[in-house]
């Protein structure tokens, strides 16, 4: 009975975290998929996978959020290797996403994203988590399942390399 | 944040979370995923069949059979989910008992755990299409006053037995409860006969009170 109670508490905590973070998860996927509507299914898939792995759910609320994004990272990686699984429940959100206007990024934005793409993937993902998704470096370290010191070193290297790749923009931004 | 960080941050694709309807859609999807899983877990416990019915009261239907979109937003709000089909009918008991519109809302839910997830999704999709498009009218129209009286008598008997065994008086039997259960019993039996009630699929139903002055009056 005790183990069942623990499992129930785990499930409730997982469900609460999932619902609370669903918009951010959608945003996370939306910024990383080629076809925007796929993000809806990936949000669904994240919950399915998280339920399977909930015995690994950490105890602190903030850690649960990082853990969920860690699951999302795996879901995304698996999807890029295969096809997106379609969820019936995600159909409404897919329809919403179809109405999102197509982005027309500026030349600067395209250049910067291209520069990010020239970084090693572990560095670019770390930079995206920090600068696009708003995580701190220690939080991103949890999501990427690396130590904080590793993440800090990696971030610093990425930042230095980006500085080289984006020296023109740095100069432009420095102009009054 | 230094300049490099600032230009990279500015290059982020637009935030979907800033679009309120998309953000709300993500939350709604999450809630539905959670609710569906909760239902699936509940149904995965030993049960004679993968059918779940929540009849609060309920009975009735005038004219219609099962249709996919006859119920209004108020019903969906009360249910907390959108039915795949709604069975509606009124019944004439022939003795002046006035039971007006009764509705039974039905939906198919994928049941994960017993088959692969993709198989469950596919089977649920097929079952949902059957539930929403099958002509249930003849089945429900065949319910007679005698059937309803029998179902009501059984409900009364069960409640008396329950009170004898537990010493606690259950809520009184009503025609609403008897008829909606009868409607659901027939629909779920037909659904199962058609081969759609199988591993990976659950059929869920709910019914509210029927309208009519005698629908929920114990006799």
Gross morphology of chain A: globular
Largest interface comes to: A-B, 48 and 39 residues
Characterize the quaternary organization of these chains: heterodimer
Class from helix and strand fractions of chain B: alpha+beta
How many structurally independent domains of chain B? 2
Helicity level of chain B, as a percent range? Answer: 40-55%
Question: What is the first-to-last residue Cα distance of chain A?
Answer: 67 Å
Instruction: Tell me the count of domains of chain A.
Output: 2
- Hey, roughly how much beta strand do the residues of chain B contain? 15-25%
Uncertain regions of chain B: pLDDT < 50 for 5+ in a row?
A: 42-50, 53-76
Major β-sheet annotation of chain B: 5 strands, mixed
Number of strands of chain A: 0
Envelope shape of chain B: elongated
Sheet-strand content of chain A, in percent, reads under 5%
- CA radius of gyration of chain A: 18 Å
Low-confidence stretches of chain A: 1-7
Please state the CA-atom Rg of chain B, rounded to the nearest Å. Answer: 22 Å
Question: In words, what does this structure look like?
Answer:
- The complex is a heterodimer of chains A (176) and B (219).
- Chain A is an all-alpha fold.
- In chain A, 74% of the residues lie in helices and 0% in strands.
- Chain A is globular, with a radius of gyration of 18 Å.
- With 219 residues, chain B is α+β, with helices and mostly antiparallel strands.
- Chain B has 7 helices and 5 strands.
- In chain B, strands 1-5-4-3-2 form a 5-stranded mixed sheet.
- The chains are: A mainly alpha (176), B alpha+beta (219).
- Chains A and B meet through helix 1, helix 2, helix 4, helix 5 and helix 6 of A and helix 1, helix 2 and helix 4 of B.
């Amino acid at each position: 009975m005790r183990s069942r109670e623990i499992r129930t508490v785990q499930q409730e905590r997982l469900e609460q975290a999932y619902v609370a973070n669903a918009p951010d998860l959608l945003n996370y996927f939306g910024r990383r998929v080629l076809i925007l509507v796929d993000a809806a299914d990936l949000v669904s898939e994240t919950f399915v996978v998280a339920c399977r792995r909930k015995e690994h759910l950490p105890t602190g609320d903030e850690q649960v959020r990082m853990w969920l994004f860690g699951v999302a990272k795996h879901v995304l990686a698996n999807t890029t290797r295969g096809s997106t699984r379609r969820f019936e429940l995600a159909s409404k959100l897919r329809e919403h996403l179809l109405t999102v206007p197509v982005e027309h990024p500026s030349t600067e934005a395209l250049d910067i994203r291209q520069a990010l793409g020239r970084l090693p993937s572990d560095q670019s993902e770390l930079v995206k988590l920090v600068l696009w998704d708003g995580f701190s470096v220690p939080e991103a370290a949890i999501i990427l399942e690396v130590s904080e010191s590793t993440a800090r070193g990696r971030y610093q290297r990425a930042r230095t390399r980006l500085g080289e790749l984006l020296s023109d923009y740095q100069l432009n931004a420095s102009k009054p | 944040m230094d300049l490099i960080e600032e230009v990279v941050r500015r290059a982020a694709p637009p935030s979907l979370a800033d679009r309120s309807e998309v953000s709300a859609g993500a939350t709604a999807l999450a809630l539905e995923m959670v609710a569906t899983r909760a239902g699936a877990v509940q149904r995965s416990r030993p049960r004679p069949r993968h059918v779940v019915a929540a009849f609060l009261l309920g009975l009735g239907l005038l004219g219609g059979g099962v249709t996919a979109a006859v119920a209004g937003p108020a019903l969906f709000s009360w249910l907390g989910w959108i039915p795949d089909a709604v069975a509606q009918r009124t019944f004439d008991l022939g003795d002046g008992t006035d039971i007006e519109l009764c509705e039974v809302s039905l939906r198919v839910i994928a049941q994960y755990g017993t088959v692969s997830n993709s198989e469950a999704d596919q089977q649920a999709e097929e079952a949902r299409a059957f539930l929403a498009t099958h002509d249930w009218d003849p089945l429900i129209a065949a319910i007679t006053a005698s059937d309803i009286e029998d179902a009501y008598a059984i409900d009364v008997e069960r409640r008396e037995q329950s009170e004898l065994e537990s010493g606690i008086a259950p809520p009184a039997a009503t025609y609403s409860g008897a008829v909606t259960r009868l409607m659901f019993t027939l629909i779920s039996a037909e659904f199962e006969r058609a081969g759609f009630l199988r591993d990976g699929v659950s059929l869920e139903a709910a019914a509210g009170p029927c309208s009519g002055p005698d629908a929920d009056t114990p006799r």
